[in-house]
C-alpha cells in the first residue's frame, strides 16, 4: 500500500513506572523517524492530545520504540531502536526494553523474550505485568563510559556534584545526596550532563540511600529533562552504591524514582537485572509523516 493511500501508522503506548513510550512496529514505514519522535513525544501537543486518555494518561512520551519482531526464534526476539524526544537514538533503555518485551510477549504468548539493542542482546522474563530484564555488567572503565580521561571517575567533584561515572548501556553520572527532593535537578544536572569529562554526554542521577532502599531522580540525555523513571539510571545508582560500599547489591535493592518502585540486582559475577511493572496505556493511529504537514 502506498504512503499516499495510507497516511497513518498504528501505534501503541506503554509505560514502565511512568517512563513512557510510543511503540511502532518496524514493518510500518515511517519516512522521517526524527520528525516522528520530536512531534509525538512533545509533552504539550504530542501523542494522546487528541484522544480521551483519562486522568492517568500521559500526553507525549519519553521516546519512540521501533520494534521488529522475529517469532521464528525460541525465545522470540525483538529488535529495538529507541528514538528520543530530541530525535537522537539511545543504545539502551531499561524501561524501554521492558516495554518492548511486554509488547512482544503480548503478540507471541511467550514468557521469555530476547531484546536486541545497540548495547547488546538482553534476556527478559515476563511474569504477568512484571518484566525482568538482564542489563549487562555495569562498567566504570573510562573507555566504556566513556570518559575523557584514563582513570575511572569515582566520587569526584564534577560541576558542583560528587559524581561516580558508570555505563549501564548508556553513560550515567551518579551523585548521592541527603534528600533528592532538595535538589534543583533542572539547574544542577545540565552542567554535569555536558561536562568535558563526558565526551558523549551523560544522564545525571541524584540518589538518596535509606533503610528501605534508594530514592532516585534522573535528568535524561536526549529527553533533556527529568523523567519519571529511568531503568539504566536505577541500575547505575545501585552499581555506584555498591562500588562506594553503600549497599550489598548481590541482594535485590529497591530503587524508587517518582514513577514507582524498581528492583535491581548487581551481582559480582553475573549481569545486573532490572525488574518492575509495565502497563499498556492506549493505542491509535498517527500521521506516518508529521513533517509533511509542517
Automatic annotation (TrEMBL):
Pathway: Amino-acid biosynthesis; L-lysine biosynthesis via DAP pathway; DL-2,6-diaminopimelate from LL-2,6-diaminopimelate: step 1/1. Gene3D superfamilies: Diaminopimelate Epimerase, Chain A, domain 1. It is found in: Cytoplasm. The record marks 172, 220 as: Could be important to modulate the pK values of the two catalytic cysteine residues. It catalyses: (2S,6S)-2,6-diaminopimelate = meso-2,6-diaminopimelate. Coiled coil: none annotated. Substrate binds at residues 19, 84, 94-95, 203, 220-221, 231-232. Keywords: Amino-acid biosynthesis, Cytoplasm, Isomerase, Lysine biosynthesis. GO terms for biological process: lysine biosynthetic process via diaminopimelate. One of its GO terms (molecular function) is diaminopimelate epimerase activity. One of its GO terms (cellular component) is cytosol. Its EC number is 5.1.1.7. Pfam families: DAP_epimerase. Belongs to the diaminopimelate epimerase family. Catalyzes the stereoinversion of LL-2,6-diaminopimelate (L,L-DAP) to meso-diaminopimelate (meso-DAP), a precursor of L-lysine. Homodimer. This is Diaminopimelate epimerase. It comes from Halogranum gelatinilyticum. The lineage of its organism: Archaea, Methanobacteriati, Methanobacteriota, Stenosarchaea group, Halobacteria.
